[in-house]
Amino acid sequence: MLGSKLHKWLAIFVGAQVLLWMATGALMSFLDLEEVRSEHVISRAAQTLPPDAAIPQWLSDRDGIAAITSRALDGMAVTEVRRADGMVSLHDPQSGRMLSPIPAATARSIARRAWVGPQTSIRAARLVDESVGTEFRGPFPAWQITYNDEATTRVYIDASSGAVLSARSDTWRFFDFIWGLHIMDWTQRDRINSWWLLLFGIGGTIIAISGFVLLANRFPRIKRWASLGEVVP
Fold first, then answer.
1. Which stretch of 50-64, 94-108, 153-167 has the lowest confidence by average pLDDT?
2. How far apart are CA 67 and CA 196, in angstroms?
3. Residue 69, burial from CB neighbour count under 10 angstroms (0-12, 13-18, 19+)
4. Is 49 in contact with 68 (CB distance < 8 Å)?
5. Is 163 exposed, middle or buried (0-12, 13-18, 19+ CB in 10 A)?
6. Alpha-carbon span 223 to 229, nearest angstrom
7. CA distance 88 to 66
8. What H or E segment, with its residue span, contains residue 108?
């Protein structure tokens, strides 16, 4: 008897969360991500520098410049020029000599500086100019640096700016796989409003609600109150 009651209350507790998961999943499937992020009404386009802004003399092409930054890259000072169209280039601060795209040796050195885990080495480095499955989708070109650690960690470094873009490991790949199962997007892993998810979300919500109704009918006290309500004039 105690086991039956425990089962009923546990079913209510777990079922409530399942109902919330199904209902919220169905609602999210209706929403357009562009509207959620306000991308349909807010522009994130970079502004360009005013004509009278201080610009290095060696910079001959001054059109569409959004930012000029002095920063460190692999232990040396560089000047980063970022344009409104997203293009990035690195230069020697004094001469203006182009430093990008960075070579493999520099990418390896950046990766070694970025590593803060247990001591390891670099297994391989390769330049990629197209999407690497679901783990990296740009910007391109980028250096893929693979470490010799147990998790087979890979870091992606922007060949144009030298910035560390993404880090991926076996743990990330496992999470990416189960995330795809969770949102029912087995290829791109970023679509939360597919018809598959919507249909299963609605179906699961209906099943959960009907389960609560059936469960309520099994409680003697609720049945008794219901029967008393029927006979009362």
1. 50-64
2. 44
3. exposed
4. yes
5. middle
6. 10
7. 10
8. helix 104-114
How far apart are alpha carbons 176 and 189 in whole angstroms? 7
Tokens 């979300």 sit on residue = 201
Distance in angstroms (rounded) separating the CA atoms of residues 160 and 74? 14
The structure tokens listed for 147 are 């470490």
**Residue that the structure tokens 């299963």 belong to:** 200
Any idea what DSSP says for residue 177? H
Among positive and negative, which fits the CA dihedral 111, 113, 116, 119?
A: positive
pLDDT band at 232 (very low <50, low <70, confident <90, very high): very low
49 HSE (CA, 13 A, CB side):
17
Distance of CA 161 to the CA centre of its chain: 21
Going from the C-alpha of 47 to that of each of 57, 90, 106, 115, the distances in angstroms are 21, 20, 30, 34
The pair of structure tokens assigned to 120 is: 């390891």
Helix and strand numbers (H, E) in the chain are 6, 7
Higher-scoring residue by pLDDT: 224, 203:
203
**Lowest-confidence pick of 147-161, 202-216, 219-233:** 219-233
How buried is residue 17: exposed, middle or buried, by Cβ count under 10 Å (0-12/13-18/19+)?
Answer: exposed
Side by side, the strands of the sheet bearing 142-147 are 122-128, 142-147, 154-158, 164-168
